[in-house]
Automatic annotation (TrEMBL):
Species for this entry: Sphaerisporangium siamense
GO molecular function: ATP binding; ATP hydrolysis activity
Residue stretches making up the ABC transporter domain: 5-230
A Pfam short name: ABC_tran
Alphabetical UniProt keywords: ATP-binding, Nucleotide-binding, Transport
Keyword Nucleotide-binding applies: yes
Protein name from the UniProt record: ABC-2 type transport system ATP-binding protein
Length: 297
């Protein structure tokens, strides 16, 4: 199966600063992929590279087997919705659809009109007169009606209220299932990741810290709690992601494929929020000797 996104040693440098470095990913098609990390981690840079809006400084990237942005055929395969869910304030909803039809060879006008009707968006209403949630739904409709194989969204719900955010994410999940879309979206909100994604990428300090199917990641990460001790004394194969200590107690988040037999530890599963925060809470130099985990089928 062709990877929806494949990178090898991918890097992007602005002046002397690497916004993305040594990025190795191989994401199979058919997933809703959540991309998460702190501000400045490289999320937008990675998405812009995938959309063909930027060129790499180092390494290689392919999207759906082709070079991002390389000609009309490749551009037609990828839909992109930027962080501010861009629409034209002076254009009506209907005019947006006509523009979409002119610019996109795969355009599905019936899909767009049906979706907007279900959302109750007036075709004659100008985008500048719409709420933030309505503009976001219009932008998502334009991206879906393009009929891409991959839909990329950069923080699509960052400015929306909780209800509009929930409606947007619900619409995204329905579209991904109905039209067999691969989706790659960034978000700061763990609730969005839990609700929508089945594949996760965590970026920290411009590097991939963990990537894989959510179900497998959760099954291979554990929290250990016990009497205070040195984490370096764990058995081989138990990789420490994060550690905290009190005078008497040690709490570790670890990753391992093997059973944990040491009875001195209390072992519990981690949730998605715990997993993400564990990787985000430890800076790159603290884990330089530990390989990033990539779990794939």
């Amino acid at each position: 199966m062709t990877s929806v996104l494949h990178t090898e040693g991918l890097g992007k440098k602005y002046g002397r600063r690497w916004a993305l470095s040594d990025c190795d990913l191989d994401i199979p098609a058919g997933h809703v992929v959540g991309l998460v990390g702190p501000n400045g981690a490289g999320k937008t840079t990675l998405l812009h590279l995938a959309a063909g809006l930027l060129s790499p400084t180092a390494g290689a990237i392919s999207v759906l087997g082709g070079v991002p942005g390389d000609g009309p055929a490749q551009l037609a395969k990828v839909g992109f919705v930027a962080q501010d869910t861009p629409t034209y304030a002076g254009l009506t909803v209907a005019e947006h659809l006509r523009l979409g039809a002119r610019l996109n060879p795969r355009w599905d006008d019936a899909l767009a009109r049906d979706r907007l009707a279900r959302l109750g968006l007036d075709p004659d209403r100008r985008a500048g007169k719409m709420s933030g949630g309505q503009r976001a739904q219009l932008a998502l409709t334009l991206g879906i009606a393009k009929r891409p194989d991959l839909l990329i969204l950069d923080e699509p719900v960052a400015a929306l209220d909780p209800l509009a955010r929930r409606e947007f994410m619900q619409g995204l999940m329905e579209a991904a299932a109905e039209h067999e879309l691969s989706v790659l979206f960034s978000s700061h909100l763990i609730s969005d990741l839990e609700r929508a994604c089945d594949y996760l990428i965590v970026l920290v300090d411009s590097r991939v810290r963990v990537a894989g199917e959510v179900e497998e990641l959760l099954s291979t990460h554990h929290r250990l709690t016990g009497a205070r001790r040195d984490p370096d004394r764990l058995p081989a194969g138990q990789h420490v992601v994060a550690a905290s200590h009190t005078d008497r107690q040690t709490t570790l988040t670890i990753r391992t494929d093997a059973p944990i037999h040491d009875p001195s530890w209390t072992v519990s599963q981690v949730g998605l929020e715990d997993l993400v925060l564990a990787y985000m809470s430890t800076r790159a130099h603290d884990r330089s000797a530990r390989p990033a985990l990539e779990v794939q089928r």
